alanine transaminase
Amino acid sequence: MRPVQKSNKLAEVCYEIRGPVPEKARQMEEEGHRITKLNIGNLAVFGFEPPDEIVHDMMVNLPNAAGYTDSKGMFAPRKAVMHYTQGKKIAGVTIDDIYLGNGASELIVMSMNALLNTGDEVLVPAPDYPLWTAAVSLSGGTPVHYVCDEKQDWFPDIDDMRKKITPNTKAIVVINPNNPTGALYPNEILLQIIELARQHQLIIYADEIYDKVLYDGNEHTSIASLADDILFVTFNGLSKNYRSCGYRAGWMVVSGEKRHAKDYIEGLNMLASMRLCANAPGQFAIQTALGGYQSIQDLVGPGGRLLKQRDLAYKLLTDIPGVTCVKPKAALYMFPRLDPKIYPIADDQQFAYDLLAETKVLIVQGTGFNWIAPDHFRVVFLPNTDDMEEAFGRIARFMEGYRKRHGSPI
């Protein structure tokens, strides 16, 4: 029989967070091995529970959640999102500018589907959250990666971004707070990105899903709050700030210069209608979450579990010879660098595979985030301190063996 092959549109699509190495980990689990999964920010499996009032309200409203909702979402949660954007000082947002989705991920793909034609380009950070690169490719566009500079706290390299703008460029993606680096961008950087978008009439897509997961008293600025003369599309949701990954409750906000984007907005409305609606139980969680007690502050503030685990993970990683890391100001991840003179890695996916096989610890290689060299990897710092010390201890022993096998100078 003729082989059934996947679409050509998937040729440039990859998602290594759930790629070949995690698939090997799944097989190992089926064989009875216990795998420590440091590859994904799935908070529930590490004992981070959603606020009780969210769970309660979803349960109470479940009998009312069997029908389709408005294609953009229910009125009350969208109104709550509107108030949230007002708190973030994003001007001019109405109920009609807000779309609820099955997580921000669905809406990211929708936003690219509505925009891109074959050959259109979108500037995406390197490293990035790989869904962005995949969404651009799947929508027929070409992702063009601008470099974030590790020596400058992983801030976007504005000169590199400028050089990569062409007549085909339609938009700039800004992931802030950043996954995988944990960087938090100052207003100075955000204003420079806005100026580039202004000069070249580009849309700014702002992924702000970690905007409350902030450490050391840092504050987050929504880039859409800094201008109103260009088009912004901002994404957020309950997955991280409210430890509700599985509820798939996210939102997308269109703001700024909307007058010249009527056709694009019509496309968004068409796609929102085609998927009928976001899941109704998740929608019922949004208003309660945004209006309730912000328990994330207890986790990231002084004495908080996430803060303690960030500090411990940073120490354990940077104590390993030849491993350096920019200490994250936000989010749930470390993106450490392996000195190539000490760790001469040619294939970082194979490196992650070997580490998994030897240590039963699952990480994600840096090139899985479209980083330019095989010299980084990403881990979450979600396990409790005892489990983290055990897992990072295994990583340290693996690194020691790697150095010996390759005759490294340390």
Observations:
- The mean pLDDT is 95.
- DSSP finds 13 helices and 15 strands in the chain.
- The chain has two domains: 8-48+298-406, 52-294.
